[in-house]
Every structure is written in structure tokens, then in C-alpha cells.
Specification:
binds FE2/S2 (inorganic) cluster; about 180 residues; Glutaredoxin; alpha+beta; 4 strands
Length: about 180
Amino acid sequence: MAHEEILSEQEAIEKDIRSRVAAFEKARGNLIPILQMIQEKQAYLPPEAINTVAAHLEIPVCEVYGVATFYNQFRFHPPGRHPVKVCMGTACHVKAGDVILENFERKLEIREGQTTPDREFSIERVACVGCCALAPVALIGDTVHGHMAPSKVEGLLLRIRIEKEKAEREKVRGER
Ligand code: FES
């Protein structure tokens, strides 16, 4: 995605958040419901949103961060268009799920909980996804990849990148 597109997307997000936050009564007890609302709408808590919430409730920014980081339901990075979820349930853990996680981290050059700068991929560890017979398991978007091996990681990422390039080429061709 072009830098300008990311910027205008960012501005739209900030505007939307400001108007939604303003609809809440200025009461400290609304902090968690407001954070939940933002996370539900944006899938994460952007830093600007934290500032907006603090200003609206007239409380310090660090207090908002303090509450948000206390609950692990809140994310601080936008999920990628292709969120990678690596299962760390018992069956997957026993079959070296952590090595799979590490491989995704290495190939994407981000850590678990982070998103690539182009927002294509994010990585998170998840609890059992219910297909232990296929352990170790990783999901990319909604697609389950079973019997994962470190050697499969690069191929999966490459396939997504090739599909994206193909779609972009077709889009350009369609615009001509
Ligand atoms: S432990 Fe990974 S799918 Fe169940």
C-alpha cells in the first residue's frame, strides 16, 4: 500500500475514533468500555486513540496505557491483512510450535504481537485452535496449515506475496 494511502487511512481512523469517543459520557468508569469499543472498531488501540481517550476523560495518558496493558484483550498494533496465528496449545507446543513461531518471526522480521511496516502480516500466538491431530498448526487469515515445518514457512509467505503481486498487476491492467 502506498505511503499516502496509509496516511489517509490513518486520518479516517482518527476522525472516526474522535467522534465515537465523544459520544461517551466523561466518566472514568467508561474507560474500559471506550477501549473495548475502539478495539472492536479498529481491531487495535492506535496511540492517537489513547490520547483522545485521555483527553476526553481528563485523565493522564499513562493511566489509559496502564489500564489497557493490564488486560491482555487489548492490542497495540494493527493486525496485518494476513494475520499469522501460531498455535501454542499443548499438542502444538509438544511438536515444537515455538520453532514455527520463531521461523515466522525471522522471515517477517517482526516479533510476536507486531505487524510488518506494510501491514501485510502480523504474528500472534494463540491457544488450541481445535485441530490437534494436525499439530503443529498455524493459521494465515482463516486458512489452517497443519503439520507445519520450518521449511514450509517461507513457501506460505511467498505464495501470499505472489498472489498479491498478481492481483496488483491485474488491477493495473484493468485500469488501462
Ligand atoms: S494444540 Fe494446537 S490445535 Fe490443539
